[in-house]
Amino acid sequence: MTEPIHMRSYAQSLPMALLRAREASMRLFRPMLAQHDLTEQQWRVLRALAAADRPVEIGEIASGTLLLGPSLARILARLKQQRLVDRRPVAHDQRRVEVSLTEKGRHLVATIAPKSEALYGRIERHLGRARLGQLMDLLDQMAKLEGDPRHEGPT
After folding, report:
1. What secondary structure letter does DSSP report for 94?
2. Which residue, 28, 79, 119, 151, could crosslink 85 as a Cys pair with Cβ 3.0–4.6 Å?
3. Domain boundaries, the chain
4. String of b and e for 59-84 (b: at least 16 CB within 10 Å)?
5. Where is 92: in which H helix or E strand?
6. Cα separation, 66 vs 155, whole angstroms
7. How far apart are the first and last CA of the chain?
8. Angle between helical axes of 40-51 and 103-127 (0-180°, round to 10)
9. Is the Cβ–Cβ distance between 117 and 94 less than 8 Å?
10. What's the pTM?
């Protein structure tokens, strides 16, 4: 007989709980994005650019959207092809690139924004305003947790 493995149950795994919650929230947003022929990752980029008050360098977009460089490069190429974003070299360093929304991109984000906010309203009604605020605070704190490389691996 094998020895039991002592760890919390799979149902109590924090990474799995976060994935389940992410999937539940994305099930709300995916149909809205599909209506506008956008992927989740494309929307993250457009949303990040819309929140910025200036053109944003690619590294900053990658960091803010949690997208890896090769994926981000493909996404930006597609968004540029759709004329939703514009890419320009940084004035003082031609090796670096800044990205901004085009007028068409701004219009698309403005069109989607009320639908997105309605979905947030649905989440708020489900959880309650205070609990949603608490959840957002807790997730923000969790995002600031630094890992210990000695304990990396499956969860």
Report:
1. E
2. 79
3. 13-143
4. eebbebbebeeeebeebbebbeeeeb
5. none
6. 20
7. 24
8. 100
9. no
10. 0.85
Instruction: Count Cβ atoms within 10 A of the Cβ of residue 108 and give its class: 0-12 exposed, 13-18 middle, 19 or more buried.
Output: buried
Summarised one tens digit per residue, pLDDT across range 61-89 is 999 999 999 999 999 999 999 999 999 98
pLDDT tens for each residue of 116-150:
999 999 999 999 999 999 999 999 999 998 876 55
| CATH architecture of the domain with range 13-143 | Orthogonal Bundle (1.10)
**Contact, 56 vs 47, CB < 8 A?**
no
Query: How many other CB atoms are there within 10 angstroms of residue 99's CB atom?
Result: 23
Helix (H) or strand (E) holding 14: helix 14-35
